[in-house]
Every structure is written in structure tokens, then in C-alpha cells.
Write a structure and sequence with these properties.
The chain has 289 residues and is mainly β. The strands form 4 sheets. Strands 12-19-16-17-14-13-20 form a 7-stranded mixed β-barrel. A 6-stranded antiparallel β-sheet has the order 7-6-9-4-1-11, with no helix packed on it. A 5-stranded antiparallel β-sheet has the order 2-3-10-5-8, covered by helices on one side. A hairpin with a 7-residue loop joins strand 13 and strand 14. The N and C termini lie far apart (55 Å).
């Protein structure tokens, strides 16, 4: 058994391995997956001295605790949280030297949803279709972590960042999502389209890595028939029969049969990863290209 590994002491509510994902396999029915808050994952790798493609841990709401079997550099970004080493507080958003056998505890998110844990060398589980990401929809990649899981680590290839604390955007108090209407906005009444881009929604507790579900006014359709399944893209806003928009995130299905009223601009999706249930959501229409 290698000493260059990370033992999971507390897995938390949902902690997964994530990297840049596996785009380009939609024709096989494989979602892209990957870190939901890509800027936070990129930053944690830079802090730990890793290349952008290194795999990290993505926690959900209540963090996790891990113990390395060799001395490593670690960093935590994303949702702000208390970080301790053997019970002693250490900086969040900065590289920390973690001795072999020490316990790194990533606490519950103070705000936001997902924290990212980077370890020098990266999480070196076996890649599937070129990625180490856990995909909750298809089941590809490593299973969500459980207590006692041991994760292999890669060999460090770089030097960790020399910063005290790296600035990061705060989780959104209001989630503003710019959208381009279509391709199926003509399946909805003009009043429904107006409601979609003018009325407030809220993030639903039923949201997950597959999609951000919303609560708010239902959108009325003009067509009652079924839509043939068609390709779905990251950020697609699908409207199921209950009329409440769902924003597709990294683990979204590659096809779907409910109409897509709009598509969210990719630059706005990382904030969606950090929007806690109850956060106000506003869809803002941008002129069609």
C-alpha cells in the first residue's frame, strides 16, 4: 500500500472527486461532469502547486476530514468555511503544509454550498474516458467518498503559491443568470416568457449537481404535445411539466424531452454552484446572437 495517499476520516454529506470533466462525449450519452465551481477548483490547484487538470475534492455543505500518509501541501477554496489541522485553525484560501498523519478538517460552509480541497500532486484515482470526475448521473468515475476511503495521490510537479490569502468572490446573495432565449421559447405563451425574465425565483432544496431547480411562478406552455428528445447543453434551462425552470449543471443529461426556454451564459454558472436553497434567482434576457 502506497504511503502517498489520503485517508478519508469524515466524508461529509457529499464529497466527490472532480477535475476538468469529460467534455466531448455527449454523442455517447456521457455528461461532461467536472467541478461545478470551476474558478474555485482552478484556484485551489494553483494554491497547491498543481496543474489545472489535477483532480480535487468537491464538498457539499458540511465539508470533510482527511488524513495524508505523507507530508503534502493543501488548500481550501470555494464556499468559505473553518479549516483546522489537528484542531488548530489554519487559513482558508491559502496553501498549508500538512504533515503526514495530521488531520485536515474542512468545516461546514459559512456561506455558499461547495468547498474545494486541493492536495499537492492531485487526487490520482484511475481516469475514466480521460477524467477522474465523479458523475452522479451516469455513475462514471469514483463513487462519492465514504468514511475510510483511501485515495491515491500523484507526485507533486510544481511549487505551491506564495500568498497569505487568495481573493475569491462571495457566494451570491442574489443569483443573476444572463440567458439567451431559445431554442424552444416558442413553446411558451408570451406572458410566460415575460414572467421568466421579470419575476423572481428561488433556489430549490431539490437542486444538485445535475441541475439547479427553482421555486416560483409556473410557466404556461402553448403546446401540449410531447417534444422529441433533443440534445441538451450545459446551462440549458429546461421546463418540466410543473412549469418551474431547471438550470442544467455539470452532470446534466445529454438529451431531454422537455422544452428549453433559454440557455444560461457559461460565465454565470459558477455562482449557481454556490447558491444555497432559498437564494433569490433572476433570469436576465440578453439579445439573441
Amino acid at each position: 500500500m502506497t504511503d502517498h495517499a489520503l485517508a478519508v476520516v469524515r466524508a461529509g454529506a457529499l464529497t466527490t472527486v472532480q477535475d476538468l470533466g469529460r467534455p466531448g462525449h455527449a454523442h455517447l450519452g456521457v455528461p461532461r461532469s467536472g467541478a461545478l465551481d470551476r474558478p474555485a477548483a482552478d484556484l485551489v490547484n494553483r494554491l497547491a502547486g498543481n496543474p489545472p487538470e489535477a483532480a480535487v475534492l468537491e464538498t457539499t455543505l458540511n465539508g470533510c476530514a482527511v488524513r495524508p500518509r505523507s507530508t503534502v501541501t493543501v488548500a481550501v477554496t470555494g464556499a468559505p468555511c473553518r479549516v483546522t489541522v489537528d484542531g488548530r485553525a489554519v487559513p482558508w484560501g491559502a496553501p498549508v503544509r500538512l504533515p503526514a498523519g495530521a488531520l485536515l478538517d474542512v468545516g461546514p460552509a459559512v456561506s455558499g454550498v461547495r468547498s474545494y480541497v486541493g492536495v499537492s500532486g492531485g487526487i490520482a484515482v484511475e481516469p475514466v474516458l480521460g477524467s477522474r470526475s465523479t458523475d452522479l448521473l451516469s455513475g462514471l468515475g469514483p463513487a462519492p467518498l465514504t468514511d475510510g476511503t483511501v485515495l491515491p495521490l500523484g507526485r507533486p510537479t510544481g511549487v505551491h503559491a506564495r500568498v497569505d490569502v487568495a481573493p475569491q468572490p462571495a457566494p451570491p446573495a442574489e443569483l443573476v443568470l444572463r440567458v439567451t432565449l431559445g431554442p424552444r421559447d416558442d413553446w411558451f405563451t408570451p406572458g410566460a416568457v415575460g414572467t421568466f425574465v421579470s419575476r423572481p425565483y428561488r433556489v430549490s432544496p431539490a437542486s444538485n449537481r445535475i441541475g439547479l431547480r427553482t421555486e416560483g411562478p409556473a410557466l404556461e406552455r402553448t403546446r401540449r404535445g410531447e417534444l422529441h428528445s433533443e440534445g441538451m447543453v450545459l446551462g440549458a434551462v429546461q421546463v418540466p411539466p410543473d412549469g418551474r425552470p431547471v438550470v442544467f449543471l455539470a452532470d446534466h443529461p445529454t438529451t431531454g424531452g422537455y422544452p428549453v426556454i433559454a440557455v444560461v451564459h457559461a460565465a454565470d454558472l459558477p455562482a449557481a454552484a454556490q447558491a444555497v436553497p432559498g437564494t433569490p434567482v433572476r433570469f436576465v434576457a440578453v439579445r439573441r446572437r
